[in-house]
Amino acid sequence: MTDTVHLSLEEVHALARDALRRLGCSEPQAGAIADTVTAAERDECQSHGLFRIPFYARVIATGRPDPRAEPEISELAPAVARVDGRMGFAPLALQRGAAPLAERARSQGIAALSVNNVFHIAALWPEVERLAEQGLVAFAFTGAINYVAPAGGTRPLFGTNPMAFAWPRENGPPVVFDQASSVSARGEIQIRRRDGVSLPAGWAVGPDGAPTTDPDIALKGAQLPFGGHKGSAIAMMVELLAGALIGDLFSYEAGERDADGTGAPQGGELMIAIDPARCTAGGEATASLGHAEQLFSRILEQEGTRLPSQRRVDARRRTLTAGVEVPRSLVERIGALG
Amino acid sequence: MTDTVHLSLEEVHALARDALRRLGCSEPQAGAIADTVTAAERDECQSHGLFRIPFYARVIATGRPDPRAEPEISELAPAVARVDGRMGFAPLALQRGAAPLAERARSQGIAALSVNNVFHIAALWPEVERLAEQGLVAFAFTGAINYVAPAGGTRPLFGTNPMAFAWPRENGPPVVFDQASSVSARGEIQIRRRDGVSLPAGWAVGPDGAPTTDPDIALKGAQLPFGGHKGSAIAMMVELLAGALIGDLFSYEAGERDADGTGAPQGGELMIAIDPARCTAGGEATASLGHAEQLFSRILEQEGTRLPSQRRVDARRRTLTAGVEVPRSLVERIGALG
Looking at CA atoms only, how far is residue B325 from chain A in angstroms? Predict the structure, then answer.
């Protein structure tokens, strides 16, 4: 049994925020990161929760990010806003960009947000969920560090390149997915290395290009895209959208800049938001959202299925009142930072 | 050896168009379908080429589509146009919607096109490629007939739900992918049934929900999404975008309406177009497109890789001058239609 500490979500937030402040983050940067960390703990996604705070500490220690950066908003076109994160972390840039994106989606029907010059080590679901909570359909795309070989190849080129999507619901939290375009998250391989467990076949190749189930060899080689050439095509699309399209870095360029090997990519993120009230001849979101509920019911009436975000939403119901258990060693480590 | 007839691409177009005219299509409907059929033959995608004309004939014979429909364009929001296909086939609606979509993408930065009330039995790459040839980044999403089980489930609910993406290039045809969210196209299973060949594991389950490699049992059961729950999430997203969001049918509703079992879905399609010149602080597409070329070079420098549309583009180089070989039996069958 791991020795744990019981924390309310308010305590999780304060623990994260205070550590980030001691590490040199401005109040807004620290607050926005603490929000994403708390949302992850609330939803029992521990790998994006407090576990990330020592990671932020390592990245700040390289001197590359500006932990006091103030993002700058501009308009690139009537339906395209931009947030220049000015080398700060992604969460604050995304918080600041949410309103300009949502306003444009409502007035123009669809809108995009180019997020530039951020360091990205958080999940994408918080930003698409935030938009969907306001009744908008939302997409997010971001690169990473080049860990993944293109289909047919054997050397790392693409990032794990997540793509997230959120659909609003009138009587509950949005339906959200946030999935890497690699078979597995990098962390899943790292955990297996730590635990001395082999990888399932098909996850990775070694530096020699041969398939491997050895986590250590896999981490030196390349991860593989999910679903073969189809996942590889999606990974390429994410590179183009979050890199070339918005004038930011590809994953291999982020890798070149990460000389310290922190694993924290500098790069961009593209978000798209659509207002369901502006996409039908009737012009009412209610009918569209009601129709979607019929699809969700049809999915759930089959045994063995679930909606993509269901596990997170179920966790949230428990933790909002009951709080969470966090390993004591992690709480102590965070308390000693800065 | 199959007995074949040599046809120029002009002859392919005339063969298709004339047959569709005899089957009752208006000149614009026949011309637009013939354009997509010819593009498929040109790119050696035979399954979407002349092979489809007898399929169109069967669908027209049901009396459900209106082969003389005139699509109607309207504006739903500054960045959202709509084409009501009025129960005609998709190609004409998509041709007519291309200019309103491109204009809005240029003026607003990003735009969407809701395509409603069409019968869809063509590939999606022609419409995204058309936009990318004009320098725009383009997406397309459409449902199908419910053939695919959601991840964890065993009964057909989703369509094979393709998603297409195109990226413009300054010195050549766009990079394009158009991929089903099922492991395989339905046609690949049908061809294996015809040829008495087993399916690879993981393609399908039978009506009892058990995995099967028997094409006949698979066609009575359900196809599986590619990449497990990730492909299933994408299939769900496509249902929501091409169904609920734009006020059109889900694949299972298209299936209910296809009482004759033609396999031709009535439904909608969502397109999104983005102008790369409006997505960067610099405001120049040239830099973005040049940057993308560096990524493509990095992909291709790895042995064993290719760009998604490379095979089609290579075929095109040959067939534009050399024409194509078409099975004589197919040419005769099309000649006898109507």
Answer: 28
What ipTM score was computed for the predicted complex, to two decimals?
Answer: 0.97
Model confidence pLDDT, tens digit, residues B177-212: 999 999 998 889 988 999 999 999 999 999 999 999
Q: Which residue of B has its CA nearest to A283?
A: B76
Tell me, yes or no, whether A54 and A8 share the same domain: yes
Model pLDDT for residues A49-72, shown as the tens digit of each residue: 999 999 999 999 999 999 999 999
The answer to whether A304 touches B152, Cβ cutoff 8 Å, is: yes
* B288 falls within a domain: no
Looking only at the bridges linking them, the beta strands covering A110-119 and A137-142 are unpaired
Unique residue bearing structure tokens 């390149």: A161
**A55 in the same domain as A11:** yes
- Report the DSSP beta bridge partners of residue B175: B167
- CA–CA distance, A81 with B238 (Å, rounded to integer): 25
* Rounded distance between C-alpha atoms, residue B39 and residue A204, angstroms: 37
Is B287 inside a domain boundary?
no
- Do B128 and B32 lie in one domain? The reply is no
Beta-carbon count within 10 A of A6 CB: 10
Mean pLDDT, range A96-121, rounded to an integer: 98
Integer Cα distance of A165 and A127 in angstroms:
10
Residue A212 belongs to a domain: no
The strand ranges marked E within chain B are 4-7, 72-77, 80-89, 110-119, 137-142, 163-167, 175-179, 204-205, 211-212, 222-223, 266-274, 324-327
Q: How far is A319 from chain B (nearest CA, A)?
A: 26
Domain tally, chain A: 2
Q: Which of B152, B231, B279 sits opposite A246 (nearest CB)?
A: B279
Q: Which of A39-43, A227-231, B45-49 is least confident? A: B45-49
What phi-psi label fits residue B261: left (phi over 0), alpha (psi between -120 and 50 degrees) or beta? left
Same structural domain, A170 and A22: no
Size of interface A-B (CB pairs under 8 A): 231
Could you tell me if A29 and A176 lie in one domain? no
Which domain does A166 fall in, by range? 72-182+225-278
Residue A49 lies in a domain: yes
Stated as kind and residue range, the H or E segment containing B56 is helix B53-61
Examine the domain organization and report whether B55 and B151 are in the same domain: no
Q: Are A83 and A93 in contact (CB under 8 A)?
A: yes
Q: What is the pTM of this model?
A: 0.97
Cα distance between residue A32 and residue A36, in whole Å: 7
Q: Is residue B261 located within the same domain as residue B224? A: yes
Residues A128 and A245 in one domain: yes
| Cβ contact B8:B323 at 8 Å | yes
Assign residue A260 the CATH number of its domain: 3.30.1370.60
What are the DSSP E strand ranges found in A53-201?
A: 72-77, 80-89, 110-119, 137-142, 163-167, 175-179
Asked whether the beta carbons of residue B110 and residue A237 sit closer than 8 angstroms, the reply is: no
H or E stretch including A212?
A: strand A211-212
CATH number reported for the structural domain that contains residue B56 in this entry: 1.10.1530.10
Cα-based distances in Å from A8 to A37, A41, A71, A321? 13, 10, 30, 8
Backbone angles phi, psi at A44, to 5 degrees: 55, 35
CA A280 to chain centre: 30
- The percent of residues above 90 in pLDDT, for chain B, comes to 95
User: Nearest Cβ partner of A112 from B82, B109, B150?
Assistant: B109
